What does this fold into?
Amino acid sequence: MPSIFDEIFNQDYSSMQSRISKSVNSRVNIIDNEKDVTLELVAPGLKKEDINIDINNDILTVSVNESVANEENSPNYIRREFCSSAFSRSFTLPDYLNQDEITASQENGILNIVIPKREQAISKAPRQISIS
It folds into this structure.
């Protein structure tokens, strides 16, 4: 009867590494609200110190460079899949977004980036124009 350790020890490390590296990318939801656009990026286990958010020439880039520290007093691992990871996602921002008012927050493994719309881009309620 195979055990869980058979699966662990008989697996080729290089194939495991390729599966890990493929999964190190953040998925994103982009929500177009009335007054802003919100980007929700999956960022489980990441500290805000590991995340960089930059704007250059109308391109918003979110990048992560997380590394697992090798401590001298670390336990004797049978298998170690936690590893350094890095990814980068870039988004071209349209003119109707106000780049000077961007805010970011992180909660429950989700990075939220809120980009307000410029005043002229916010839809106005329909109204009747009276003739004088």
